Amino acid sequence: MSDKTEKKEFELTGKHVLAITVSAFALIIGVNLFMAYSAIGTFPGLETDNSYVASQQFDQLKSAQVGLGWDVEAKVDGETLVLGIRDADGIPVEVKSIYAIFGRATHVKDDQEPAFSQSATGDYRANVGQLDFGNWNLRVNIQAMDGTAFQQRIPIYIARN
To answer: Which UniProt keywords apply (predicted)?
Structure first.
């Protein structure tokens, strides 16, 4: 047998182990940096400027809102967002004003401010256009006829067709 046909056996050296270790950590750190960048880039922002100040009125505002006795629900029907506001007896409620933001839970690029109008059934309807499937949030600020403020976040899931 000649020396030229002999196969050289692979030898794992310290340089190889170092290269494998550095590559593994580089991959892990790279993925973590990408995920952190993605998380920060899609963060919609703060709910309130000063949470301490907002907390000082929380109990009063909550008591007034609960005192209304409203049952509020929302759904998407085609390209229409339907907001139902009912009193304790199930009768549709007429309100002074509705301000709402409808959008994704994870980012603000799809946010829209629907313009609601009351329909003959007593529900409030707004055109929101064609929506993609997934989780959406409707954040409503409603003012009752007596001036009482009502705030709620209503999650809406749109199924894949």
So the answer is: Membrane, Transmembrane, Transmembrane helix
Q: Are 142 and 150 in contact (CB under 8 A)?
A: yes
Across residues 130-144, what is the average pLDDT?
92
Question: At which residue do the structure tokens 């009063």 appear?
Answer: 60
Determine the longest span between alpha carbons in the chain, in angstroms: 102
**Cα–Cα distance between 153 and 43 in angstroms, integer?**
17
Dist CA 2 CA 44 (whole Å): 71
| pTM attached to this predicted model | 0.67
Using H for helix, E for strand and C for coil, what is the string for 87-145? CCCCCECCCCEEEEEEEECCCCCCCECCCCEECCCCCEEEECCCCCCEEEEEEEEEECC
Report the alpha-carbon distance of residue 151 to residue 161 in Å, rounded: 31
pLDDT digits (tens, 9 = 90+) for 14-71: 999 999 999 999 999 999 999 998 888 777 667 778 888 888 888 888 899 899 999 9
CB 74 within 8 A of CB 138: yes
Which of 79, 119, 120, 113 has the alpha carbon at shortest distance from 98?
Answer: 113
| Gap between the Cα atoms of 145 and 142, Å rounded | 10
